[in-house]
Amino acid sequence: MEVVEKVILKNLERGHAHASEKVVMSHEQPMPDNCQRIVTDADPDNMMDEVYAFTTTLQLKKSLQHCRVAVDTDPIKIEHRLKLYVDLHNPEGHTSQVSGDLLYCAPNTNNYF
């Protein structure tokens, strides 16, 4: 998973905007042992038969040199996204990847997902 910082600078006089992104934190971990749960729901509409559930903690550096605070002002907007990547190793021997992202609030604030 990654925390990506996006900075958008708006030129109000010309109506242009410049955007840049950088990865401010990256974390990779294997699937923990004993995190698989078998679903025994008898509902025929429920396609889920197994679930993998675990938690992890991301340690972000609190220095503004590494990750700036989220801002939404007229000329400057800084936002953060948490990007998740899950590799699925299929029984046939190939790997598939599922990915998604969530809006994330920067460190040193009391706002969370």
Give the SSE string: EEEEEEE
The portion of residues forming beta strands comes to: over 45%
Terminal residue distance: 15 Å
Individual helix count: 0
Structural class by helix and strand composition? mainly beta
The count of DSSP E runs of length 2 or more, i.e. the number of strands, is 7
Model regions low in confidence, pLDDT < 50 over at least 5 residues:
none
What is the share of helical residues?
A: under 10%
Largest sheet: 5 strands, antiparallel
Task: Please render the helix and strand layout as text.
Blueprint: E1 2-11, E2 16-26, E3 36-38, E4 50-52, E5 71-72, E6 76-89, E7 95-104
Antiparallel strand pairs: 1-2, 1-6, 3-4, 5-6, 6-7
Can you describe what's shown?
This protein has 113 residues and is an all-beta fold. It has one domain. The protein is 0% helix and 47% strand. The chain has no helices and seven strands. Strands 1, 2, 5, 6 and 7 form a five-stranded antiparallel sheet that branches. The chain has a two-stranded antiparallel sheet with strand order 3-4. β6 and β7 form a beta hairpin. The protein is elongated and about 60 Å long. The two termini are 15 Å apart. 5% of the residues are buried.
